[in-house]
Amino acid sequence: MEHLTLLLAIVIVTALVFDFTNGFHDTANAMATTISTGALKPKTAVAMSAVLNLVGAFLSVEVAKTISGGLINEQGIRTEVIFAALVGAILWNLFTWLLGLPSSSSHALFGGLIGATLMSVGTSGVNGGVVVTKVLLPALAAPLVAGLAAMLATRLTYRIGRNTDEKATAKGYRAGQIASAGLVSLAHGTNDAQKTMGVITLALVTGGVLAPGSNPPLWVIVSAGVAIALGTYLGGWRIIRTMGKGLTDLRPQQGFAAQTSAATVILASSHLGFSLSTTQSCSGAVMGAGLGRKGGVVRWSTATRMFIAWGLTLPAAGLVAAGAEFLTGQGPWGIAATAALLVLLSAVIWFASRRQPVDHTNVNGADESADADGPAGIVAAAVAAVTPPPVTGPASEIAATIPAPGTGTSDPTTEPARPAAV
Predict the structure, then answer these.
(1) Would 176 be classed as within a structural domain?
(2) Which of the ends of the chain has fewer CB neighbours closer than 10 A, N or C?
């Protein structure tokens, strides 16, 4: 720790800020379905998730080693590059959080690292094989595998319980949801907390504090685990609303199937060192569970916006990081300007979010038309625009004397009037 420079300290703090945003951005992965089905109260759910994220951070370092020693070449990478990469990842996380879109924090970080490295040293600084095998391929496979598993699990669950009362079994499935949500939170800690560990370790290597190929020190593991746990406890309520209510309407059986499938995929990938997106895995599982129930639907308008966000994450974060790297390359004033821009834009996004706040009190009480048809109020305004105005004047008095069809006279006890015989 005594070898840390001011710039290196700034990078470490920025990495922990990213870890914090990762926590509240991805809380929905573990707890959206549990909250939407009523298995846990919102604040209880995020508190439980925060503790298990912290525990999960200590279970493995395989993903951290993929980032610190595999994604980009450590030789020739300056500490400023990592700072620029984190700026791109943080701003994309905050922007998609403002929109309530469950994009991938992992891919935001990868895109930032790739964009900043390309701007700094060119294509030689990026290990293309690692990007393809451990980032892009898992990104394509994870939501498909998790979605298919959740769909099959949902159908199996309903088939097994077809002769039982659904309301009677719902309590048991809610208990199962709590257990599976805890498993997803644990898996999230083993995967996403390690990404920040890898970034800090990479910064320590570029700063000459650690030798190349070193494992994350204990203080890095602890600080990354605490940062993601605090962010998780804050709760990304906007994204929880989208995951829990915007994609599909889930019942306890579906929530249990979705979370169990997602946790299995995430834990398996962490064991193999695949740095996949937990967001994509959980979102795919939620959609699969929605399709697995007979009569269940997926709101494809919301899903389409989510898919677009997934596709834009790597290039968008990379472009922002490349611009930040260009600025930091101008010297100390460029680094200071980049830091100031990060703080300013973050504040702008936060104040924008206060115009329509979402928290634990209204995360399940939103107007569903806002999720299905666009911003709240658009459908209502359109209906009001084509509704004829009320009749006033003499015509309204005449209309008042005419009974409604099928009601007969104004006396509700009498028979409806019959037409006269011709």
Answers:
(1) yes
(2) C
